[in-house]
Design goal:
heterodimer; A: 430 residues; alpha+beta; 2 domains; six-stranded antiparallel beta sheet; B: 453 residues; six-stranded mixed beta sheet; globular
Chain lengths: 430, 453
C-alpha cells in the first residue's frame, strides 16, 4: 500500500464537498519481546494501518477512521455524516513547513528479535546476580513506522519514525510482604544500556532491604524524577488550554501570576531529537515547537490545539488535544546527591498507587506509596509500606525546598530533576 | 471467512495455532461544557494469530486480511524462537458455534446519529442547568458493534457478535479552587434503551457535585469503614480478584506458596465468586477468547482460598480446572486472564445493624477508581459520610482507602444482606475488559483513610 496514494485518493473523494479536510495515514510495525517469571515468554509482531479523516463542512467538524484501504468511500461517508452534527469549526487545516526534529534511527529498524532477547536476558541476569530470589520480568520493544499527512490547504508530508524501549522489574515475595520495583527507558534510538536499566532496578531493591515505619504527620517529601508524576498529572490538566477555556482549570485567568516557587520552570517541547513525545506536527497539521509554560514560577502560557486556540484567540502550540508533547523541567542548584543532606525526617517517592482517582484537576492528591522510602538525618533508611501521601499540587509547588542540579529523562517524555517539597501530609498505619 | 481462516490455519507449523479476526463499527459522541466536543465514527478490522511451539508463544497482529497466512507463518516462526520446554495447554472440548447478538431492545445500529447526539445533549444540558456552580460537564456516548471470528487448530470455530453501549455523565462543580466531579453511567451489551431515560441520573450527578463543594475533606486516619455495595464490589474485584488471576502466580514459586489453595485468608463470613454465566451482566461471556466456556468459580469460600481464574496454559501448569477467563480487549491483543462478574456473596446483616457500635467511622459511598499492586490496594470513594455513635452524619469528600489485602480480609466485621451489581471496565496489562462487580454493604475495621488534614 502506498500511503501517499491512499491519502490523495481520499482528498479527491472529498474535494468540492468540504471547506477543509485532512487525511492521516499511518503504518507501523512493533516487535515486543517479553520475559515473564525469569523466562522468555512471548514475541509478538504487530503490523498496523490506520487511515484517519477530518473534514470541515458547513462550519462543522466530522471525523472518521478505517483500517482497510478498500473502505475509503465508507470513510468519507462517515466523516461527512458526523460533520452534520459535529463541533463548530471556524478554521482550515494549515499548511506550514515542518520543524527540524530527528525521529528516525535506521539502527532501530535493523534490530533483530534476537538482539531484543539478548537485552532482556542481560537485564534479567544482572537482577538475579543481586538477588536470585527476585522473580524477574523484562521487556524490549522496537517500533518502525511512517505517517503520511495531506490536507486541502496543500500540506503533503511524509514522516518516518522509530522507537526502542527496554525495562526490567522484579518481584520479591516474603511472608506477608510483596515488593515490586522496576525501571524502564525508551526513546527513538537503538542505544540503551541494559546494565544501566538493570542497575536502577537493583538500586530500588537495595534501598528496600529494610522495611521501616514512618510517623503520620507533615514532613518534607522528595519527588524523584520518576515520582514527579504525582505533581505533573494535575498540571497537565491545569495547563490544557481546553480546560482553561472551559473554566475548569484552577489556572484560568492566572497568566503572569506566580503559581510556583521561582526555582520551577517548565517547557513543553515537541522538537527534542529522538524523544518519544516529539513529532513534526500535531493531529491537525500544526507544526510542533517549544512552549514556555512556567518561567521561574510565573505562569506564561497554556497548551493549545487548533480548535481551542481559534476559540480562545490564541496561537496553536502544536499539542493534540491540548496535551503535552515532552515536558522539560529546569534543573536547580543543589547537587542531586546532596538534596537530602539536611533533611532530618522525610519521605522519598518513586511510585504511587491511586493517582488520578480523586479529583486531579483541582490539584488535590491522595495516593498510596507503592515504592517510597524513609529518610532520617539525610540518609535513606528503608522502605515504607501502608503509607498515604496527600496534598495539593498548587500548594506543593509554592513550598519547594530544593531542586536537583541534574535532570534526567524518565518515561520517555519527561526531562526533570528531583524536587524536594515541604509540608506534605503523610498518613501511616503503624 | 471460515474457509479462509481454516486454510490459513493449515499453513501453521506449531503445537497449537489460533486466529481471531474482529470487525468493529463504532460511534462516539462527547459533549464538554455547552458544546459538542467530538463526534466520530470508525470501522476497524484486524486480527491476531497466536502459535505455541515447545511452550513458547509467538503472535502476529495485522490489519490487512491479505496478510492472514503470512501472520500465521510469522507467529509460528517467533514461537520457535521462544520455545524451550514442552507445550502444556489444558484440554478443552472443540466447539462449533455461530452466535448472534441478542439485542432484544433497540438495535443502536439503526438509531440515527441525530438521535444519539440529541440524547447525549439532553443529559449534558440537564447537568449544566442544574445550578450556577456547575461549571462544566462531560457527557460521553459510545456504541460499538463487534463481530468476532475465532478458529483454532484443535477444531474449534466460533462466530460471535458483541454489542456494547455506554453513556458517561460527569458534572463538574467549582467554587474558587474547590473543584468537585461526579460521574453517573449506564453501560451494557444491550441496545439503545440502555441510554434512554437517564434524566434523573444526570440530575443526581449534578446535585451531588454541588453538595460536595461544601463538604469538608475527610480527616486522614485509621477508621472502621462501612463500604456501600458499589465500593465493596470494587474492593472484591481490585483487591482480591486480581490476586486470583493465575497468570501472575503460575510461574512464581513464592507466590504459589503464598496463595496456596486451602489457605485461610478471610473471616468465615466472606465468600467471593467470579461467574461469567449470569445473564444480562456486563462481564458475561459465552466463550472466552480461547474458546473455553464461561464458568462460575468460587475464589474465596467462607474465608478460605478455594479457586482461581485460568487460561488454558495456567490451568494445565497449575493442575487446576479451566474457568474460561482468557479475555482479549480486541484484535490487537492476546487474551490474558481476566475476571468476568465478580462478587461478594450476601450475608445476613441488615444495613442498620451494620452501623451500630461504631463510635467514629466512615461510610464510604460510590467509587471513582481503584488500583492494586500485589497485596497493596488503594481505592477512592466518590464521597462518604462520617459515622458517629452508630449514626450517619455529615457528608465528607476525598475519601481514599488504602491497605494490605490480607490484613483487610481478616478485618471484615460484617457482610450485609443487600447484594447490588455495578458495571464498568477493568484495566490490566494495557488492556481493558467489560466486567461487573457486586457486593452487599460490608464493614471493615482498621482501614487507613487518606485525607488532607
Amino acid at each position: 500500500m502506498n500511503l501517499s496514494e491512499v491519502a490523495h485518493k481520499v482528498l479527491e473523494k472529498v474535494s468540492g464537498r468540504v471547506s477543509s479536510a485532512q487525511v492521516t495515514v499511518s503504518r507501523g510495525e512493533s516487535t515486543p519481546v517479553s520475559f515473564e517469571a525469569d523466562k522468555l515468554k512471548a514475541i509478538k509482531t504487530s503490523r498496523t494501518v490506520i487511515i484517519g479523516l477530518k473534514v470541515i463542512s458547513e462550519g462543522r467538524l466530522g471525523e472518521a477512521q478505517v483500517t482497510d484501504p478498500e473502505d475509503l468511500d465508507r470513510l468519507v461517508d462517515m466523516a461527512l455524516s458526523s460533520a452534520k452534527f459535529g463541533r463548530e469549526a471556524d478554521y482550515v487545516f494549515p499548511n506550514q513547513p515542518p520543524p527540524e526534529v530527528k525521529l528516525y534511527d535506521g539502527e532501530v529498524a535493523k534490530l533483530a528479535a534476537e538482539r531484543l532477547i539478548d537485552a532482556c536476558r542481560e537485564m534479567l541476569e544482572l537482577v538475579k546476580d543481586y538477588n536470585p530470589e527476585i522473580t524477574v520480568y523484562a521487556y524490549a520493544n522496537k517500533w518502525v513506522g511512517e505517517t503520511y499527512m495531506a490536507n486541502t490547504s496543500g500540506l503533503d508530508f511524509r514522516g518516518e519514525g522509530t522507537s526502542y524501549s527496554i525495562g526490567v522489574h522484579g518481584e520479591l515475595t516474603r511472608e506477608g510482604d510483596i515488593l515490586m520495583a522496576g525501571y524502564g527507558r525508551g526513546w527513538r534510538r537503538a542505544e540503551i544500556d541494559p546494565s544501566e536499566v538493570a542497575g536502577r532496578t537493583v538500586e530500588k531493591f537495595r534501598m528496600a532491604e529494610r522495611v521501616v515505619q514512618v510517623r503520620s504527620g507533615r514532613m518534607p517529601v522528595l519527588f524523584t524524577s520518576e515520582g514527579l508524576e504525582v505533581l505533573l498529572l494535575s498540571l497537565r490538566l491545569g495547563l490544557s488550554g481546553k480546560n482553561v477555556l472551559l473554566g475548569s482549570s484552577p489556572l484560568s485567568g492566572k497568566l503572569g501570576e506566580e503559581i510556583a516557587d521561582p526555582r520551577i520552570s517548565l517547557t513543553d517541547s515537541g522538537v527534542e531529537d529522538y524523544r518519544m513525545g516529539s513529532g513534526h506536527y500535531d493531529e491537525d497539521g500544526v507544526p510542533t515547537g517549544r512552549t514556555l509554560l512556567i518561567e521561574k514560577g510565573v505562569l506564561r502560557n497554556f497548551l493549545y490545539d487548533l480548535d481551542t486556540a481559534t476559540r480562545a484567540g490564541k496561537e496553536p502550540t502544536g499539542n493534540t488535544n491540548c496535551s503535552p508533547n515532552n515536558w522539560l523541567i529546569s534543573a536547580g542548584d543543589v547537587p542531586n546527591d546532596e538534596i537530602l543532606r539536611d533533611l532530618k525526617e522525610g519521605v522519598v517517592v518513586y511510585d504511587v498507587l491511586g493517582l488520578g482517582q480523586g479529583n486531579p484537576i483541582s490539584g488535590e492528591f491522595s495516593v498510596n506509596l507503592a515504592l517510597g522510602y524513609k529518610v532520617e538525618n539525610g540518609e535513606v533508611v528503608g522502605r515504607v509500606k501502608n503509607t498515604m501521601l496527600a496534598g495539593n499540587v498548587y500548594e506543593a509547588l509554592k513550598h519547594v525546598l530544593a531542586v536537583g542540579s541534574r535532570a534526567e529523562w524518565v518515561g520517555g517524555t519527561l526531562y526533570a530533576p528531583p524536587v524536594l517539597v515541604d509540608g506534605l501530609s503523610v498518613v501511616s498505619k503503624g | 471467512m471460515r474457509e479462509r481462516l481454516e486454510e490459513a490455519l493449515r499453513k501453521g507449523k506449531a503445537d497449537y495455532v489460533e486466529i481471531r479476526i474482529e470487525e468493529v463499527e463504532a460511534t462516539a459522541v462527547a459533549f464538554k461544557g455547552k458544546e459538542i466536543d467530538t463526534l466520530s465514527a470508525s470501522k476497524v478490522r484486524g486480527g491476531i494469530a497466536r502459535a505455541v511451539v515447545r511452550g513458547g508463544w509467538g503472535m502476529a497482529v495485522f490489519n490487512d486480511l491479505k496478510e492472514l497466512s503470512d501472520a500465521v507463518r510469522r507467529a509460528c516462526e517467533l514461537a520457535g524462537l521462544v520455545g524451550r520446554e514442552e507445550t502444556r495447554l489444558a484440554e478443552v472440548e472443540p466447539v462449533q458455534e455461530v452466535a448472534g447478538a441478542e439485542l432484544r431492545g433497540r438495535d443502536f445500529r439503526g438509531v440515527l446519529l441525530d438521535e444519539k447526539v440529541r440524547t447525549t445533549k439532553e443529559y449534558n444540558d440537564i447537568m449544566l442547568r442544574h445550578h450556577p456552580k456547575i461549571e462544566s460537564t462531560e457527557t460521553r456516548y459510545r456504541d460499538s458493534f463487534r463481530r468476532v471470528w475465532y478458529v483454532n487448530s484443535e477444531g474449534t470455530y466460533i462466530e460471535d457478535e458483541r454489542p456494547d453501549i455506554s453513556m458517561y455523565m460527569t458534572a463538574i462543580a467549582r467554587d474558587g479552587d474547590n473543584v468537585q466531579k461526579v460521574t453517573e453511567r449506564a453501560i451494557s451489551h444491550g441496545g439503545f434503551e440502555t441510554v434512554e431515560g437517564l434524566q434523573e441520573r444526570a440530575e443526581r450527578a449534578a446535585r451531588r457535585a454541588v453538595e460536595l463543594l461544601s463538604a469538608p475533606p475527610v480527616r486522614g486516619g485509621v477508621y472502621t469503614v462501612v463500604l456501600d455495595p458499589r465500593l465493596a464490589g470494587v474492593f472484591a474485584h481490585e483487591a482480591f480478584g486480581h490476586l486470583s488471576e493465575a497468570d501472575f502466580v503460575y510461574e512464581n514459586p513464592r507466590l504459589k506458596e503464598l496463595l496456596v489453595l486451602g489457605r485461610r485468608f478471610g473471616v468465615e463470613d466472606v465468600t467471593i465468586v467470579d461467574d461469567g454465566t449470569i445473564p444480562g451482566l456486563y462481564g458475561t461471556i459465552k466463550y472466552d477468547d480461547e474458546g473455553v466456556p464461561a464458568e462460575k468459580t468460587y475464589l474465596l469460600k467462607e474465608g478460605v482460598l478455594v479457586g482461581r481464574l485460568h487460561n488454558r496454559e495456567t490451568s494445565a501448569k497449575m493442575g487446576e480446572p479451566l474457568t474460561g477467563n482468557a479475555r482479549a480487549q480486541g484484535y490487537s491483543s492476546e487474551p490474558i486472564v481476566r475476571m468476568t462478574n465478580t462478587y461478594i456473596e450476601p450475608g445476613k446483616v441488615p444495613f442498620e445493624d451494620m452501623l451500630s457500635g461504631i463510635k467514629l467511622g466512615v461510610y464510604a459511598v460510590d467509587m471513582v477508581g481503584g488500583q492494586t499492586m500485589m497485596e497493596m490496594f488503594t481505592f477512592s470513594a466518590g464521597w462518604g459520610y462520617m459515622i458517629r455513635d452508630g449514626r450517619i452524619e455529615e457528608l465528607v469528600r476525598d475519601v481514599v482507602l488504602t491497605g494490605n489485602l490480607f490484613e483487610t480480609l481478616k478485618n471484615i466485621e460484617a457482610v450485609g444482606d443487600d447484594l447490588r451489581w455495578d458495571h464498568g471496565h477493568c484495566g490490566k496489562g494495557g488492556q481493558t475488559a467489560p466486567v461487573s462487580t457486586g457486593s452487599p454493604h460490608i464493614r471493615i475495621r482498621n482501614v487507613v483513610v487518606g485525607g488532607r488534614r
